[in-house]
Task: structure prediction
Amino acid sequence: MLSRAFAKGCGGKIINPLFKVKHLKTMSGVNVDNAFPELDTIASFGVLRGCDLAMKKSKEFWYIDHGYFGGYYRITRNETIHDGKGNHDWDRFNKFDLNQEDWKMNGTDIVLCPPSVPQIEFLNINNWVEDTVSKIKRYTDKRIIISQKVNSPKGFYPSYKENFINLPIDEALKNAWVLITDHSNTMVTALLRGIPVICTNKNRRIGSLDKIESPEYNREWLRNLAYNQWSLKEIKSGKAWEELNMWG
Result:
């Protein structure tokens, strides 16, 4: 439904990458990596069903996923999240009537939100947890708590080399000093609750691990995210496509 809405809004057509990959896998001697050599531009909702391969083989891709807040959908060009940059007004954000709590500056825990297994594979960040934990321990002795998705079709992140407390995000944030992730939307959840974030994603670097004891108390960029997500109706009508080409 969402893919068809985007196709209608931008004048594109629907293809089935999963069918193509499955078909090629049945052909002896055929390299699945060459499944989509003819694609110049592709749009995909998520990275499953062969979409990851199609995006990697295209010259340009538009990535669609659940929005940052309000039940909308985010769309980004050649990245999985928006960089947060821009100079938009607060009007779109304000219509969601989201409470921004005062900054909490007495937390005791570092909350780590790993990417899902499919995203780890797509972004080729297989050692993200191990590398991030190693860097964290250089600069703080605060307790590390893991909060990861449990509904990934490929299950949990592979076993950690050491034991961590694993809590749902709401519980993990109760005594949080900072939340660290690569691209999880828990960044928005944390900021609204007054907890600063460190983002390691190359397209949205916020803060740095070596400054973990003095994180950035900044959520101004939430207003820019509100301008980079759209309703299904706005996607289908072409409004999203128009605005993406204007500032996306």
About this structure: The first strand starts at residue 41 and ends at 45. Confidence is low (pLDDT under 50) at residues 19-30, 152-156. The longest helix spans residues 128-139. The beta strands are 41-45, 60-66, 73-77, 109-113, 143-146, 165-166, 176-181, 197-199, 229-230.
